[in-house]
Bacterioferritin-associated ferredoxin
Amino acid sequence: MVVCICNAIRESQVRECARAGCETPCQAFDSLGRKPKCGQCAGAARAIINEERDAA
């Protein structure tokens, strides 16, 4: 699933970032070498990161 249309970031990428230690959507964007644009994906990205954190 695509989480961020502006940057073409997929759910799997956000999950990988979370597993690598990213705790916020901004940290995930930074680790992927991208910048947030419209911000519509922040809630979904945060939920994915929280899921991964809770599963760890």
